[in-house]
Structure formats: C-alpha cells, structure tokens
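I have been asked to look over a protein record a colleague put together. This is what I was given:
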Amino acid sequence: MGSHRRHPLFVPALLCALAVLVARPTAASGEDTDPGSDTGTDSGLSTQVTRLYADAAVVTQQYEAGRRESAVEGARARRYEELLVRERRDIAVLHEDLGRIARGQYRSGGGLPLTAQMLLADNPEELMRGQRAVWQADLAVNNAIDKSRRAEARLAADEANAAAQWQKLERRNSELAELKRSIEAKLEEARWTLQGRADASVAAGSCRGAVRLDQPDPGTMPEYVTPVETYELSASFGSGGDRWANGHTGQDFAVPIGTPVRAVGAGTVVSVSCGGAFGIEIVIEHPGGYYTQYAHLAAVTVDQGQQVTPGQWIGQTGTTGNSTGPHLHFEVRVTPELGSGVDPAAWLTARGVRL
C-alpha cells in the first residue's frame, strides 16, 4: 500500500465541519455542495469527488484511531474492576481474621470483664500480656481493613472515571461511524455520476475538456512519485490474460473511481484522448526520452501541451474503455505509442520509487 497522511485524533472543529458537510444536499438535489463551485459542471463534480475522497480518508483514520483508543480505555476499566473485586475479597478475609480474634478472646475468657479475669487468674501478669497481644492483633486487623477500604474507594473512583471515559469514546466512535457512512454514501453517488459522464464522453469519442481542481501543496515533492498515493497492485507488466493478446502492457493500480492521479515526474502532456480500449487517457513525455501513460480515467485536469510537475494531479481514476472495474492502467514507454512499453515497476524503482 502507499503512504498515508497522519491526522490529529478527534479534532472537534474537524468533526463539526464534516457534520456540516454531510448535512448539505448531494449533487443529485441540484444544489451546490461547495461554495464557489457548481456540481452540475464537470469541474464542480470532480471537486466534490476529490473533497469527499479526502474527507472519507480523514474520518476513516479518526474512526480507526478512536476504536484503538476505546479498546485501551475499555481494558483499563476492566483492569480497575478486577482490582476492585480483589480488594473487596481481601477486606472480607480481614473481617474473617477479626472474627477469629474475637472468638479466640471469648474462648480464653474474653467474655468476662478484664478486672474479673485478673482477679480469677492464677498469673495476672501472664493474663495482661495475653490481653495486650489480643489488642494489638485487633488493632492491626482494623488498621488493615481501614487501609483496604481507602484503597477500595480509590479503585472505585478510578473504575468510574475509566468507565466514563470509555463510554464517552464509544459515543464519539458511534458518531464518527455514522459520519463515515454518510460521507461514503455521498462519495459513492458522486463517483458513479462522474463515471457516467466519462462513459458518455468515450461513447461520443469526444473529451469533455480539462476540469480544474485545487492542487495539493507540493511541499518537498521528490523527483519521481507513484501515480496514485494509496493503492493495491493488481495486474503487472507482462502478465497473461484473456484481455491481452501479448501480455499486459502496464501496471494496474486498483483504486476507487475519482482517486486523484499524479504525474510521476516532470514533463509535458503530449496527448489527451477519449475513446478506444484505454478509454480516457493521458500521455506525458519526460526528460530522457520516456513517456508515461495513464488510462481508464474518469476525468482529466490537464490540457495537451501543458507542463506538469512531480505529484501534480492530472486526472481522476475511473473504469472507462476496456476495463473490468475501477483502476489506473499505468505504462512507461520509449515512444508515445502502444507497443513500446517497458516494465513500469522496474522503471520507477530505478528512480527511487518502490511499489
């Protein structure tokens, strides 16, 4: 899998903002879900898919982090409960010890007043020593019981606090789970709307034109990157199959519809086409005489002749053309044309990018 961004846990402002997002109507209602954009346009729909894609990833990470934290708090509450049961059991044992001391006093004459015991005793000094030993044992047991009761009170308070925190986390996780389901439902609807428009373009053999997306902050982007950030590898270069007469010509990345596609390196867009086996596709020329192809797209965000930088979003994944499901078909070629491909994984590895 590719890399994942980190996010702080349970940021209240983010949760509120996402709740407002989910409360807004979907594109199907004909209303705008993003100020300054129109989901009725290609750019508005692509923007909506990209934003929901990012929001779903954030909420999923928040939810998973919450589940982990909840498991820790639940274990802590159970541990305090076990300690409390043990402490109460120890107090019961001490009470039994105190009862044995009392019974021993009674059997040895403890039922008589101390003065009478002294008058009747053959050896008063021995009697006093025995009585003192009983008092000391009684005091020790009582002190132990008091100490255990204080420990029990502390454990009970700790258990209550841990249980309250656990319940609070469980409630928050339930809210996040519902938010996650709502965002993903909106995202799925928007993805297939985007794919429907892409299919119409391919059927007409005419590209709808580049959509405009707010590009991510490039930061310290390396010279070469993977074509999608998070993915699962599927069909590899040269693999066999009924769909390819002479082996698979590229590397497939299994990703959902609408996933942002990145230029793997700096270069120039030499073609954008919509039709044929590859559906909507982009070909970029890179320094050194190599070309990369990005196929089966649902949308493009660049125009022919445009200069691109490493990591720049150039389109969104789909399942147009000869495709059995959402994925990105990525090729590296020595010419712009099909049939001149080299192994994309080896080509990227030679440039410091491991799939």
